[in-house]
Amino acid sequence: MEKVDRPLGPVVVDIAGTSLTDEEVKILQNPMVGMVILFTRNYENREQLHNLTHDIHSLRNPSLLIGVDHEGGRIQRFREEFTKIPSARSLGQLYDTDPQRAHNLTAACGLVMASELRACGVDFTFAPCLDLDYGQSAVIGNRAFHRNPRVVSILATAMVSGMAQAGMACCGKHFPGHGYATADSHVELPVDDRPLTDIRTNDEVPYASMGTLLTSVMPAHVTYPQVSPAPAGFSKKWLQEELRGRLGYNGLIFSDDLSMKGASEVGEITARSDAALAAGCDMILICNDPESAKTVLENQRWIRTKAFDERVARIQPRGKFPSWDGLKLSQNYLACVKQIEAFNAEIAEKADKTATL
Questions:
Q1: What are phi and psi of 228, to 5 degrees?
Q2: Which residues fall in the annotated binding site for substrate?
Q3: Residue 165: CA count within 13 A, CB half-sphere
Q4: How much is the pTM?
Q5: Spatial separation of the C-alpha atoms in residues 280 and 293, rounded to whole Å
């Protein structure tokens, strides 16, 4: 495959399988593409994943970014041969009884998660989830650390610090908060009809607390009718006035997946991509819909800015990273894995006891 010199663009796309097809190579060399997002279907084992990421990185100079949704709990795309990362909620529950251990363990999760991904050539993961655990959103559920925004801030900061030790940036999601709305934005448009004051004093707190630690943010496909008629990811009110204006955020903004049902009310795929970029998103995700991705790549009009390039630079991985064999020589990594495995064993033991009652 011939490498082409081409700066990164604003579109995030996926691929079908465990290796690249000739058609996908052409798509990934399109100047509008800036990142490839991987899913479980793209993974067989670590060796295959490493070969795939090597092939993707070999297509462009600078290399395309490679991302994944890999948070822990039920959102962990690669499982076999990877450390099992506990759910955010389990870490939040631990915080209620042992705050110091929860903080240390969450940092360990961030380091192990990012280290293992980077050892396989993955540059970035869309984590952590900053939504509050109101106990009513099925799509968020145990992805949230806690109901208390202060605890969410503390544990998310710990996770981000662990990721940073491995040279990986982060993504806080789903701004301003997806935890209160009950509907699943993958299949319908959720509505959160609380006033802005409630959202500011609860859901926005982690974003305000973490500030510049957040190298990127992803808004929710949720409508907050008391604030703006458009879903947050298509709303200048949310992205320009609230996130960048009031909170002073200057990092990169990803859209959530524009193929999701929660985005469909904005219009067809080109209208969605236009609206997301116009509202203030820097990069837009189009997943599990290759025809829509092609349509956007063919029709999207976009002007590169200095701010875009600076924000993309902040989500690049930092420093060279060892192979998996090299990672196994790191005493810090091994100690963190040991902490996580001990906690997973405790959770499993509790589950077994509950099942036998």
A1: -155, 145
A2: 69, 77, 143, 173-174
A3: 19
A4: 0.96
A5: 20
H-type alpha helices, 202-323: 205-210, 236, 269-279, 290-299, 306-314
Q: What Cα–Cα distance (Å) separates residue 289 from each residue in 15, 204, 232, 285?
A: 10, 31, 22, 11
Which residues are part of the catalytic machinery?
186, 256
For the chain, give the number of residues. Answer: 357
Q: Give how far the C-alpha of residue 127 lies from the chain's centroid of Cα atoms, to the nearest Å.
A: 4
79 contacts: CB under 8 Å, gap ≥ 6: none
Q: Could you read off the pLDDT tens digit of each residue along the chain, which spans 357 residues?
A: 678 999 999 999 999 999 999 999 999 999 999 999 999 999 999 999 999 999 999 999 999 999 999 999 999 999 999 999 999 999 999 999 999 999 999 999 999 999 999 999 999 999 999 999 999 988 899 999 999 999 999 999 999 999 999 999 999 999 999 999 987 766 778 999 999 999 999 999 999 999 999 999 999 999 999 999 999 999 999 999 999 999 999 999 999 999 877 677 778 999 999 999 999 999 999 999 999 999 999 998 899 999 999 999 999 999 999 999 999 999 999 999 999 999 999 999 988 878 776
Show binding-site residues.
Answer: 69, 77, 143, 173-174
Asked if residues 99 and 148 have their Cβ atoms less than 8 Å apart, the reply is no
Neighbours of 289 (CB within 10 A): 17
Per DSSP, 19 falls in state S
Query: In sequence order, what DSSP letters do the residues of 117-182 get, joined into one string?
Result: HHHTT--EE---B-----S--TTTGGGS--SSHHHHHHHHHHHHHHHHHTT----EEEET-SSS--
CB 216 within 8 A of CB 225: no
Q: Compute the radius of gyration of the chain from its Cα atoms.
A: 20
CB 127 within 8 A of CB 178: no
